[in-house]
Amino acid sequence: MTAKKKTEKSEASEKPAQKKVSAKDEGKVVHISGTRKRSIARATLKEGKGIIRINSYLLNNLKPDLARDRIMEPLIISGDLANKVNIQVNVKGGGWRSQSDAVRLAISRALVKYSKSKVLEKSFIDYDRNIIVADIRRKEQRKPNDSKARAKRTKSYR
Length: 158
Description:
Blueprint: H1 3-26, E1 29-36, E2 39-47, E3 52-54, E4 57-58, H2 65-78, E5 85-92, H3 96-115, H4 118-127
Parallel strand pairs: 3-5
Antiparallel strand pairs: 1-2, 2-5, 3-4
Helix pairs in contact: 2-3, 3-4
């Protein structure tokens, strides 16, 4: 093999590797889910202009205000990163409070996975551990012949 052929082969092998890296960074998409009680939120994060949609509604239009404020916490902590990505979240099940916690968890996990930043993850955990780590508590099952999970039938002795 001559020197000319070796250089052609080495150049050819270098170029595709460079293309793969650039294509990977351009179309980076993160799919992640978060759960709380009966609610399941599935988040999709892409590069963009900072548009956040929950069930196809803009975050600014979300009611109640407490739910919107809880969802905005990871966006505020992440700072400028939130303005560089678009987040689409689909959430179902449970009530409005557990849905907002599930969305919050999914958004924060997606931001950490997208940025691959240990500093961001640490700042989330320092603020509130449940922003990254799911709360696994569930409703206790109702027992037969009782009104609630722990309530017992009253005895009158008469």
